[in-house]
Give the backbone structure.
Amino acid sequence: MKKIHIILLLLVIAGIVGMSFFIKDLTTYETFDSAAGKKDRFVVVKVQLDKTHPIEYDEMKDPNKTIFYAVDQDGKQSKVIYNNSKPTDIERSEGIDLNGYMRDGYFECTKLQMKCPSKYKDDMNAAQKNLPSASNEKKLEYKY
């Protein structure tokens, strides 16, 4: 084999080995049912906060424990235990990505990421009222 072939082969092997370190970080979104089938395996579940149940958080009793209920994409509800302080404005979030493990009867969340509501989603009619209309605009004349 030529030297160039050996160098290219080593680069390909190094690339495959390098990518194998990151393959464990590539996760897919699960539901509570599919996460229950992967017991004791790290999963990410895309949910929305179930606002029919109150968020249980007592910073005096246990500042590192937040309990709430969430609904996944299939509409299944589950209790979520987040071992950290209550995130600010969790009630206003449009969605939450829960990272953690499914346990017997609840989801143990080690990390969560909230999806903030869009500031552009508000009343479109109010935004249109602020736009200048063609009748209100002054016509500019350019003289050359």
Q: What stands out?
A: The mean pLDDT is 82.
